[in-house]
C-alpha cells in the first residue's frame, strides 16, 4: 500500500540505492550527485531497518526560478499504484517552496504521463539558457522532447 511508504528528502548515502533504481528503470544517473539535496526518495516501510531499498525517486535541478524535474522513477513492481503521480506532486510542492515558477523536463518514455499531469510540449528554444547547460540537455537526453509547466 502506498500509504505505508516512507517519503524523505534524499541524503548522500541514498545515492547508491537511487542509482540502482534508475538503472532498473532505464534512466541515466550521471550528474545527480550535486543535486541530491533536491531529491525525494520513497522507501518501503518493511525494509527501513534492513538494507535500504528505494522504490521511488524524483529530483530537481534548480536554476534560479526554474528547475529541471529529472529522475522520476518507480520500481517496476510498484508502478500503476499512484506513486509516480504522488512523486510529481511532492516535487512540485517542494519546487514551489523554493520559489520556483516553472518546471521543465525531458522525456521520451513518459510523454503521455506528463501531459496528463499538466505539462506541455515546448521547443528547446523556450528553455532558459542556464538549464540548457544541464548534462540532461547537453549529453544524456540530447534529442528527447522537452516539457514545461508553470507551477
Ligand atoms: C513514469 C513512472 C514514474 C510512472 O510511475 P507510476 O507509479 O506507474 O505512476 P502512477 O501510478 O501515478 O500513474 C501511472 C498510471 O497508473 C494509473 N494508476 C494510478 N493508480 C492506479 C491504481 N491504483 N490502479 C490502476 N491504475 C492506477 C494512473 O492513472 C496512471 O495512468 P495515466 O498516466 O493514464 O493517468 C514509471 O512508469 C517509471 O518509473 N517509468 C520508468 C522511468 C521513466 O520513464 N521516468 C520518466 C522520465 S523522467
Structural account:
The chain is built from five helices and seven strands; from the N terminus they run βαβββαβαβααβ. The chain has 151 residues and is an alpha+beta fold. The chain has a single domain (2-150), classed as 3-Layer(aba) Sandwich (Aminopeptidase). β3 and β4 (66-74) form a beta hairpin. It is globular and about 45 Å long. Residues 25, 27, 72-74, 79-85, 107, 109-110, 113, 116 line the site of coenzyme A.
What descriptive keywords fit this protein?
151 residues, alpha+beta, Aminopeptidase, seven-stranded mixed sheet, 5 helices, 27% strand, globular, binds coenzyme A
User: Outline, from the CA principal axes?
Assistant: globular
**Name given to the CATH architecture:** 3-Layer(aba) Sandwich
Order of helices and strands: EHEEEHEHEHHE
User: Strand portion, in percent?
Assistant: 25-35%
Query: How many separate structural domains?
Result: 1
Question: What do the pLDDT scores average to?
Answer: 93
Please bin the fraction of helical residues. Answer: 25-40%
Amino acid at each position: 500500500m502506498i500509504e505505508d511508504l516512507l517519503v524523505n528528502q534524499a541524503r548522500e548515502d541514498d545515492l547508491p540505492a537511487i542509482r540502482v533504481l534508475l538503472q532498473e528503470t532505464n534512466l541515466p544517473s550521471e550528474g545527480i550527485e550535486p543535486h541530491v539535496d533536491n531529491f525525494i526518495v520513497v522507501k518501503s516501510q518493511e525494509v527501513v531497518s534492513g538494507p535500504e531499498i528505494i522504490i521511488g525517486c524524483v529530483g530537481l535541478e534548480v536554476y534560479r526560478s526554474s528547475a529541471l524535474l529529472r529522475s522520476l522513477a518507480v520500481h517496476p513492481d510498484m508502478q500503476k499504484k499512484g506513486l509516480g503521480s504522488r512523486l510529481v506532486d511532492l516535487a512540485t510542492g517542494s519546487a514551489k517552496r523554493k520559489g520556483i515558477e516553472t518546471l521543465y523536463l525531458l522525456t521520451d518514455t513518459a510523454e503521455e504521463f506528463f501531459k496528463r499531469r499538466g505539462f506541455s510540449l515546448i521547443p528547446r528554444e523556450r528553455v532558459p539558457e542556464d538549464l540548457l547547460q544541464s548534462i540532461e540537455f547537453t549529453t544524456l537526453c540530447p534529442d528527447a522532447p522537452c516539457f514545461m509547466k508553470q507551477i
